[in-house]
Amino acid sequence: MSKQKQMYDYIIVGAGSAGCVMANRLSENKNVNVCLIEAGPRDNSIFIKMPAALTFPIESDVYNWKFESEPEPELGGRRVGQARGRCLGGSSSINGMVHVRGHKKDYDSWKKFGIQGWDFEDCLPFFKKMESFEGGKDPQRGGSGPITVTRSKAEHPLYQTFLEAGQQHGLPNAGDYNSGDQAGVHVTQATIRNGIRCSTSLAYLKPAAERENLTVMVGCLVEKVNVAGTDAAGVTLVQNGERKTLHAGREVILCAGTIGTPHILMLSGIGNTDAFKTFGIAPVAHLPGVGSDLQDHVVAPLRFQSPSGVSIVKQLNTLGRLKLGAEWTLFKTGLGATNFFEVGAFFASSSDVDYINMQHEFLPFLADFQSGKVNIADGFQYFVSQMRPYSRGSITLNTANPKDKPAIRFNYLSDRRDVREMIDGIRKTLEMAHQPAWSRYRGKAVDTPNVDATDAELEKWLRIVANTEHHPTSTCRMGTDAMAVTDSQGRVHQLSGLRIVDGSILPQIPTANINAPIIMVAEKIASAMIHQN
């Protein structure tokens, strides 16, 4: 790893799911110098490395930006927390490790935004390039990529009952949902390598860290992109209280995420310049789409008690946790090596939708993962998520101070079509939870509607419990229309030398947990950049 200096060919802002990929791939060329800048610390914590400890980095002020929305008008004015990684690996270092590519139609539909080269068949080579799948290489899967993808064991009786109940309700067994048809119940695939979280920091950055042409800077808050005329010239950042200016000979690449990237752009005078007047920010480029079109998966938990001793809780008492910690520390096996989300499903809320639009994630105990609480109890819970919402939110400035977080408005359930799809999906889930397979294990419902609840009752309950799946996208989306921010390669319109590669450029949120799609996008754009140079 080279020593810090002032001039680089590429400056990458944000060492997350995309930034680590870009740093690795671009620095493969020994003739270019790459600087990767991260606001947070290194990812050395045992709580990041141990999959079962996933609530700890989410609770942390050190590794999580801990964003919070403005009061959500359709959720009774509640503020909704949004976990975003703040360390090497970014959100891949604090997420649930569930590996989902998405549906083929997700990517095939992106052409409606005026961009080419993003059909699923265009993306498949990069999904394969990124992964080493436990099942081995085949025409659909990669066998030698940086990201290790393993199949969960799903041996606990509650996991098996989830799979059985879904099939009793009429869902197929999807098998490898990342290879064929997503629809149906499945055993989850996870980004876990030999019992350790396989973040992009571990998979991409660690192998590249000793390259002489790669500089990694941590604890650096980027305040703005510096633009000379219409050329991105570098960035201004603060490290240990000292303000510094770094210069980019070729490009500044923003990988700061769906919230961080539009925030930096607006602080730099790039975005809806009419809104900057209030803050005294000099306009650089009028791109009104910066911060608009915010999308996220809304989720509702359906919770049921189970007989004492059935759920995993009996293995997570004080003695059990000591055993878990010892087994994982010594052998990287046991419960410490699981993310607990070992089964799931994709299904259609009704026959009116074009293709599967709902997701189930499942836990074999009761816990409040939305707020990071670790108090657990006997039971099980379904998480019901709508995959392609119609509601749109925004990121805007609160102040001109880079230390202040932006204003986040998700506007969950503001479109009646989202309410309809969620009600239908919840009703189907309640039916699944009352299949014969659950008769041995299903106890009293916990803050969950009855299976025969009316639409009005379900909607009232939904607005009380609805929360985020922590999958924000699309605030600087690719496209050719007036609200698009980048072209099909992430290059920012109206400017040169400025590119965005992260979840913010996705034209539409996919039918997937977003980590795998973001890594794929980074691999694809990096490849195009390398071949162009």
UniProtKB/TrEMBL annotation:
EC number per UniProt: 1.1.99.1
Gene3D superfamilies: 3.30.410.40, FAD/NAD(P)-binding domain
Enzyme class: oxidoreductase
Cofactor list: FAD
Domain Glucose-methanol-choline oxidoreductase N-terminal stretches: 257-271
Taxonomy, superkingdom: Bacteria
Keyword Oxidoreductase tagged: yes
Keyword terms: FAD, Flavoprotein, Oxidoreductase
A molecular function GO annotation: choline dehydrogenase activity
Keyword presence, rRNA-binding: no
Family: Belongs to the GMC oxidoreductase family.
Name used for this protein in its record: Choline dehydrogenase
Organism: Citrobacter enshiensis
